[in-house]
Amino acid sequence: MNRKHAIVAGFLAASAVFFGIAYAQGPGCGPDGKPGMQRSSMKQGGMMDPGARVEQRLTRFKSDLKLTAQQEPLWQAFAEKSKAEAGKGFQAMRERMNDTKLVTAPERMTQMQDIMKQRVAAMESVNESFNRLYAGLTPEQKAAADKHFSNAGRHRHGPGRGGPAAAEPRKG
Is residue 149 part of a domain? Predict the structure, then answer.
């Protein structure tokens, strides 16, 4: 595989990982578990706080799973790993945006590749702890987890906005 194909493959793989992490940090959820921007997940300047978002998503997911006391240590390991990785991608992006040093295009590409490698490593770490949790779930809990993650990275929109309702023909 030549270098160009390797770079493209790397970007595609990193994009898939980014969307996986974005799911874990998903849109802010209200107390009712519905997505939407909530004041509690806002930082100064109107930026979403990745830590608050992941906390909301984890709370909702844990509620869906209905964990037993014996499963709690597996959950805690997964939740701690998810929280630890929550803001790293945004931090790297902010640092890159604030970097005023002029670099060549190949140097910038290398920087982007390094950031993506870090995100892949973070996702692998979260995935490892999730796999341990998943292995300890009952079949019903696994079905709930499968359902929870079936919408990973997808944005739910209302009719006419590209969501499932938009794909159906309008009546009347």
Answer: no
In a domain, 79, yes or no: yes
Which one, of 151, 162, 141, 163, lies nearest residue 57 by Cα?
A: 151
| pLDDT tens figures, 21-36 | 554 544 444 444 444 4
Position 169 confidence tier, pLDDT thresholds 50, 70, 90: very low
Q: Domain count for the chain, please give it.
A: 1
Strand partners, 35: 29
For residue 155 the two structure tokens come to: 């944005």
Nearest 5°: the CA angle 55, 85, 45 is 65
Which two tokens mark 35? Answer: 């997505």
Give the C-alpha separation, 60 to 95, whole Å: 31
Q: How far is 138 from 83, CA to CA, in rounded Å?
A: 24
Among 5-9, 36-40, 53-57, 87-91, the range scoring the smallest mean pLDDT is 36-40
For the chain, give the longest Cα–Cα distance. Answer: 58
Which residues are within 8 A (CB) of 142 and not within 5 positions of it... i.e. 6 or more apart? 134
Q: What is the average pLDDT score of the chain?
A: 74
Q: Which residue matches tokens 């996702």?
A: 123
